[in-house]
C-alpha cells in the first residue's frame, strides 16, 4: 500500500505521509524539524530570583488591596 502524497504548507513540496513521521502532518520532514534555539529557559542568579520574588509579592499585595479595600 502506498503512502498518501501531501503538499507541505511551508515550502509547497510534495512528500509521502508515513506513519510515525515526527512533526506536523501537513509539513514535510525538513520543515517539521524543531528549531535548535536551546531549551528556552534562562539561568538566573540569586539576585534575579530575589528581585522577581519581591516584584511578585508587591503585585500580590496590590491586588489584595484593590480587591479587599473598604470604600468609605
**Mean pLDDT figure:** 83
Strand content: 5-15%
Output the structural class.
mainly alpha
By DSSP, the count of extended strands is 2
User: Helical residue percent?
Assistant: 25-40%
Question: What's the oligomerization state?
Answer: single chain
- Gyration radius, in Å: 25 Å
Order of helix and strand elements from N to C terminus = EEHH
Largest sheet: 2 strands, antiparallel
Q: Count helical runs.
A: 2
Shape: elongated
Distance between the termini: 78 Å
Strands in their spatial order, largest beta sheet: 1-2
Number of domains: 1
Stretches where pLDDT is under 50 for at least 5 consecutive residues are: none
Characterization of the model:
- By secondary structure, the chain is mainly alpha-helical.
- The protein has one domain (5-32, 42-68).
- The chain is built from two helices and two strands.
- It has helices spanning 29-32, 46-68; strands at residues 5-7, 14-16.
- The longest helix has 23 residues, at 46-68.
- The chain is elongated.
- The protein starts with a strand and ends with a helix.
- The model has no long low-confidence stretch (mean pLDDT 83).
Amino acid at each position: 500500500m502506498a503512502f498518501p502524497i501531501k503538499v507541505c504548507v511551508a515550502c509547497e513540496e510534495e512528500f509521502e505521509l508515513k506513519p510515525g513521521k515526527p512533526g506536523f502532518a501537513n509539513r514535510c520532514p525538513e520543515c517539521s524539524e524543531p528549531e535548535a534555539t536551546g531549551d528556552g529557559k534562562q539561568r538566573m542568579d540569586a539576585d534575579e530570583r530575589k528581585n522577581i520574588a519581591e516584584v511578585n509579592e508587591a503585585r500580590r499585595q496590590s491586588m489584595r488591596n484593590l480587591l479587599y479595600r473598604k470604600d468609605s
